[in-house]
Amino acid sequence: MINRARILLATVGVPAVAIAAAATLGSMWSSRLPAVVAIRWTNGTPNNSAAVDPFLKFTLLVSAGLAMVVSTMAVTALRRGNGLARTAIGCLVGVATLPAGGTIGVLIANLDVRDWHEATGSALVVAVTPFVAVIGGALASCIAGATPAAQPLSGPADDAPAIGLGPSQRAVWIGSTTNRFLLSSVLVNQVGMVPVSAWIYAVLFGVGLVVTLIGSRLGATVDSTGVTIRIGLLGWPRRHLPLDRIDHARAVKLGLFQGGGFGYRVNPFTGMSLYKLRSGPALAITMRKGGLVYVTVDSPEPGAGLLNDLLRRQALTGPRPEA
Predict the structure, then answer these.
(1) Whose CB among 127, 165, 276, 279 lies 3.0–4.6 Å from 309's, allowing a Cys bridge?
(2) Structure confidence at residue 147 (pLDDT)
(3) H helices of the chain, where?
């Protein structure tokens, strides 16, 4: 109940404050504003306008609608028992306050002008709008806090995958997969671009090379420190998941469109991260805070088993000191 109250306060309360501030300023400055205000500028020159009252009502209604959408999404995720990232709440609330922030900026830009054509303060709108959004997002992030998963996690289950690692044994598992279609398609495309000019060929070849280096190979290493995910032919960028932050692991099969497609995908509400170059077998890692990390690698069963054995040993003996 406390978590839900905090989520509601962050996703509804913060945008409501921004909306109320914009409405209050519009009322207080009514005598200093023209009946029609400038709402759009090109190179500092006003090129569109609107009556004050309809403009206020419309923009603040949009901000309220966005806040309700964000609040519904957050509460729905919370009811499903998913952990919520405070950064996601902050970003979404920031987006919801953008219309209110823009409204405040427009009001300031039109203060004390006789005609909307004289409102040349477009820089104020550009400055005030993101400022209000950033302040609102940061405040919402602080209010929401970190929300753990509804069901506490307690390590690998008795029937979870295992390889039988002994108390004093050491082991390392390395898994990987390669998107051969991407590798071959880049080479074929270069051959097909022979007729184009040299500089276009160079640019397209460079883009294709970068995509190949980053997106054609994916690897994962499991050892006593945790899991290291390596992306690309050069193994960079990489991400390390410390062992003490992992709850358990298993091997799964991902469908073609499961998780939103190929590449790197992240769901800030559920905490799910997806590293996917193909459909099929994948290593699924459940984090202690409720997030899930999927890595599509070949034959992930031994990796899941080793990781679970390391976690069981850590639960009995505690984390090993780093060398």
Answers:
(1) 165
(2) 57
(3) 2-8, 14-28, 52-79, 86-109, 122-144, 180-192, 198-215, 301-317
